[in-house]
Amino acid sequence: FTYSARDRLGHVAGPNTANLTVIAQPPVTAITLQGVYYDDGTSVFMRGDTKFQLAASTSIPEGVARIRWRFESSSGQLLAGPFQALNTLSTTVLLPNALLEGPFDLAFNAEDVVGNVELEQRKRFVLDKTAPQAPGVVPVNPVFVESGERFAAPVFEFKLPAQDLPDVYPSGLARVSYSITDRSTGGPLAQG
Which is it for strands 149-151 and 121-127: parallel, antiparallel or unpaired? Predict the structure, then answer.
């Protein structure tokens, strides 16, 4: 823009010019997860040691003033925060130790150096701290037990029951593994 000034006696200062870029768009914050997590398409299940990486960007270099975030329970109760990371383009967010197992929201946004504030984003996660249950081998064929040792015929069938507890926000079983070792040689007979 151009401006000038004139006094009552007709003295003129200017014209002066100044360049000013108007930034109308707020920053945009992206979230990525670091660590072990599972996205089933509906929910993102995670362990307690999973971290969030929040990275904000603007149309001007180094234009992000701050990133804000907070954790809320599924009912909207503030679990931790509000926290702020000042003068940063990205930050790593750890789960609060007090966060209980189950669903929670991570709400976050960014503000740029000229005061534009991003609309709050909210992502739903499920914290799963419980290992699945695998109570042990269940033989289908007859097994003879003597002094705590089990004996079976050369061809036998067994079941390996395992479940992720449905009442504790299960992420679901990924797999059930087994290994059968030959006690006389110490080598594997079968595994899967």
Answer: unpaired
Amino acid code (one letter) for 157: E
Task: Give pTM, 2 decimals.
Answer: 0.67
With beta carbons less than 8 A apart as the criterion, state whether 139 and 121 touch: no
**Whole-number Å distance between alpha carbons of 10 and 73:** 68
Containing 141, the helix (H) or strand (E) segment is none
The C-alpha atoms of residue 104 and residue 94 are separated, in whole angstroms, by 14
Instruction: Give the integer Cα–Cα distance in Å for 166 and 172.
Output: 9
Low-confidence ranges of the chain (pLDDT < 50): 79, 82, 84, 86
Q: Tokens 């534009």 — which residue?
A: 116
8 Å CB contact between 126 and 43: yes
Q: What are the pLDDT digits (tens) for 95-114? A: 776 677 888 888 888 888 88
Tokens of 91: 């930050």
* Cα gap 106→76, rounded to integer Å: 11
